[in-house]
Amino acid sequence: MVLQLYLDWLSEPCRAVAILLLENNIEHQVHELSVIKGETHSDAYKQINPVGKVPALVDDGFNLSESHTIMRYLCVSRNFPDHYYPNDIKQRARVDSWLDWHHTNLRQGAIRLIKANIYGPIKNLSQVTIDESRKEGDNILKSSLSFMEETLSKNNYIAGGDQFSIADIALACEVAMLPVFGGSSEGYPNVQAWLKRLSTEIKTWDQANAKLNQYLASKKK
Ligand SMILES: N[C@@H](CCC(=O)N[C@@H](CS)C(=O)NCC(=O)O)C(=O)O
After folding, report:
1. Hey, what domains does the chain have and what are their CATH numbers?
2. Is 174 in the pocket of ligand 1 (CB under 6 A)?
């Protein structure tokens, strides 16, 4: 059976996994769910991923969640070109380090802005909660983007090397998503140049980001 991928195209970790599959021409079947409509919490989906989040991958009866783990699993099990997840133990550790950093830094800032600006109004959160969340999110994003900016002033790719890795894919998907919930990479020229470079080097970037771009365009109207 071909790989089964459960995703919402508006979700950063989902697009990162999808890009990896698309770039490597790996046959897979997509099952679309809407996070905002709560579709990841249905009993049926919880059979796939009990945590109730996307993405999830099913490989011949083997269910896997967590985007970074899925990406590492795909790189190793499908023997993707070395630059995605290098075999050299130190280069690989550098990629892992940025993936871990992503979920404890940049993503934490994004999560707080999502809470303030997207879920705040939908879930009727108090103004105090919204303001606190927005302030925390802005502060975390500022320190995260500054750290990326400094790194990218020395390297073309976040974990070094001369080609992008899965750490670039994960982080680029997050940075590209920031405007959806009121964040921005403005004022970080090296981050913006890196994102632009990746959006051309990743051949399927536009395909994977089509729904996000549609959503952003509809918000501008
Ligand atoms: N650490 C997880 C995060 C997954 C995640 O937060 N997914 C969100 C969409 S971006 C989700 O499914 N949320 C559904 C919910 O929390 O109700 C990963 O990298 O896969």
Report:
1. 3-83 (3.40.30.10), 85-220 (1.20.1050.10)
2. no
